[in-house]
Amino acid sequence: xxxxxxxxxxxxxxxxxxxxxxxxxxxxxxxxxxxxxxxxxxxxxxxxxxxxxxxxxxxxxxxxxxxxxxxxxxxxxxxxxxxxxxxxxxxxxxxxxxxxxxxxxxxxxxxxxxxxxxxxxxxxxxxxxxxxxxxxxxxxxxxxxxxxxxxxxxxxxxxxxxxxxxxxxxxxxxxxxxxxxxxxxxxxxxxxxxxxxxxxxxxxxxxxxxxxxxxxxxxxxxxxxxxxxxxxxxxxxxxxxxxxxxxxxx
Amino acid sequence: xxxxxxxxxxxxxxxxxxxxxxxxxxxxxxxxxxxxxxxxxxxxxxxxxxxxxxxxxxxxxxxxxxxxxxxxxxxxxxxxxxxxxxxxxxxxxxxxxxxxxxxxxxxxxxxxxxxxxxxxxxxxxxxxxxxxxxxxxxxxxxxxxxxxxxxxxxxxxxxxxxxxxxxxxxxxxxxxxxxxxxxxxxxxxxxxxxxxxxxxxxxxxxxxxxxxxxxxxxxxxxxxxxxxxxxxxxxxxxxxxxxxxxxxxx
Lengths: 250, 250
Known about the structure:
Chain A is α+β, with helices and mostly antiparallel strands. Chain A contains five helices and 13 strands. Chain A has helices spanning about 25-40, 60-65, 140-150, 205-210, 215-225; strands at about 5-10, 15, 45-50, 70, 75-80, 95-105, 110-115, 130, 155-170, 175-185, 195-205, 230-235, 245-250. In chain A, the strands form four sheets. A five-stranded mixed β-sheet of chain A has the order 1-2-3-5-4, with helices on one face. The longest helix of chain A has 17 residues, at about 25-40.
């Protein structure tokens, strides 16, 4: 007879050993309902059930017994159940993070792109190069990478100067779009053909007065041109550097 | 005979109608493998399969046929499959967002808390009140709410002055912790008994020189005390106000 194995964490949570989750659904259903009974008897608050890919058939059983999804990866599904009414379950990730780069050269020209895919009938709508952070990527890195990928221009990160918080952005989750000021290290544009229709150095004044440029884009460029912004700083004891990134005013 | 129904989105993605997902696993397995064949014939890039709670038994079948989890809610699981090799699948939320409040009163005293649950052997380690954003909550709102919940002090949001980016924070996802400067609207502390051991107004100088206070906390308080920070701004055309929040330097 196989039975579920679990440990209890410091917050009164039963944490089931994924290796003890059976893919035989009849057996798992019996194991799980006995376990839930025990968790109530032991006055636990929450149970955490990680179901490995090989046992995904257990998901439907756990759902029938009151478990809900917490998060998933390609390799497992994490489900939870509140044993105590209204017990606190720390939420999963809630936000998307993106960054755009304001790159102004020594001739007071701004690096702008227009995207290939845009709503029909709209003008070119020049905007900043930028995009979403890769997993584990720093904001400064992401800004430099996105600008390079879309325009071929190498840059150095200077400061963060603006950001926008936007709820219900995609699949009910929120988005934060940061704006970075970067200094160009060269001037020769190489367009990324797949996504970018046009890329050019546009006189800053023209961009700020161009009708087809969205007010949001004018606002963030103006802000980056006029303010020092938040610079990268370090704090002793936070290592490795790839894991932590700090921004402060100077 | 029931068959999967789908539409094709502008990015070459087949989007399966969740109502056509059968909870009868044998039938679903046949339907899905025919559909995958069709998607290849039609040169689609990606397929999106939303499986409603009532059909969670279909998850294991879809996984066996090459689908991987994209994201989950309490009501459904979204799975995807790349029909074209390396097709782009827009990622799901990647970050947790939290905020702490620097509240300094007219006597140059800082509002600090110490948490009930902390590593044994550690000192009280006074820190800022704060916590994670609720779904759809603005940063300014969250700072004011967390300070009030933990300390009973009502405040008004002034500015953001610092932030920390931390990778692999929980379940492999990253975290951004913002620091807000808030002005106190009253002085009478009411501790939240459940999580907070101590709450007091501490002379700012003392906090900045106290050995038991973590360098990170000293750094962010100093930054908030010395700089104006990023203020809330608005941009015409972004409505409703609950959906968008903008921060800029002034």
